[in-house]
Design brief:
The chain has helices at residues 2-26, 52-72. The chain has 75 residues and is mostly helical.
Length: 75
């Protein structure tokens, strides 16, 4: 019986703490600093990252390496 009372009191205490902490979580939202990212810059040297051909070739090379490592353990 005593354990049930402690369990119920812990339940209600946790409910009150969570209820009272929600305004603090909502208070975090607001107009903070804005971050603007332009991904369409053509003057950067990293334009190859947006080209799908490089992603496909990189994926095939990765699959090939994984296949070779997995096959090499069968000897």
């Amino acid at each position: 019986m005593k354990n049930q009372i402690l369990t119920r009191s812990n339940y209600w205490l946790m409910a009150v703490v969570l209820f009272l902490s929600s305004p603090f979580a909502l208070a975090q939202e607001g107009d903070g600093p804005t971050l603007e990212v332009d991904i369409n810059k053509s003057s950067e040297p990293a334009d190859w990252m947006s080209n799908p051909l490089y992603w496909v070739i990189g994926g095939l090379v990765l699959i090939l390496i994984i296949a070779l490592v997995a096959r090499g353990n069968r000897r």
